[in-house]
Design brief:
Layout lengths: L12 H10 L2 E5 L6 H16 L3 E6 L17 E2 L9 E5 L19 E6 L10 E4 L6 H12 L1
Parallel strand pairs: 1-2, 1-4, 2-3, 4-5, 5-6
Length: about 150
Amino acid sequence: MPRKKSLIDLPELPAALAFVRSGKRFLLTSHVNCDGDGVGGCLALQGILRGLGKSATVILPDPPDDQYRFLEGWEGIETIGSPSFKAERLVVLDCPALTRIGKIEEYIGEGTKVLVLDHHQDSLPFGHVNLTTAQASSSSELVYHLGVALG
């Protein structure tokens, strides 16, 4: 069955696919005071990565609001603590600038590779790969396009 063509222009999609395919362990996060797009996008991407046989942990800078408790995977969300590791691969969702991830920066080591998925107009390219476009309605939509492209 042929894959669906994306309705938005994503020139960095091949690089994002390579980022995912070449990694084994992923840390997923979003901005401080995370909203539904960040929480939902992290959990959806976690499901996609685990479906590919990869390890994926969601750690947020703050506890997410209880209104998102219905989302599958909610109980597995961790919040920032004392980092016991440096991330191999970090995926930052719904965050236009590195400074917005708060203390999650402590998980970034010298060898950490970063993928940014963001839909904000003023997004700054701070990742090694930046799948960012204001054409997307949300960062969760970018997760959808990434998931479709991954099959």
